[in-house]
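#structure-requests
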Amino acid sequence: QVQLVESGGGTVQAGDSLRLSCAASGRTASRAPLSWFRQAPGKEREFVAFISGSGSTTFYADSVKGRFTISRDNSNNTVYLQMNSPRPDDSADYYCASGAAITSGTVGRESKYEYWGQGIQVTVSS
């Protein structure tokens, strides 16, 4: 069993920066592939970014590419999402999710993720 806990959310001005953290615990938490998703009010949840277990491979949704950076510190089982130049349309509840079988071809498929965090709210004001 893996537990994921997000932190670092809140309200930020457009153009400022915010860093989200996802702390993983549990027997198989270390080096599990992990992604960030988000869900805005009235919209479906969408993929944001993925990082492999080693951290050597990352993928981003086109909407955040060049602005957000996903990284991980496996020494403390934490994955980060650095949000630079956020925009009001980045406002959403952000979730981290992990799954041992996630590959580059399945990063956007929610059904492939075994564990989800409870989500954290990010509001970007204009």
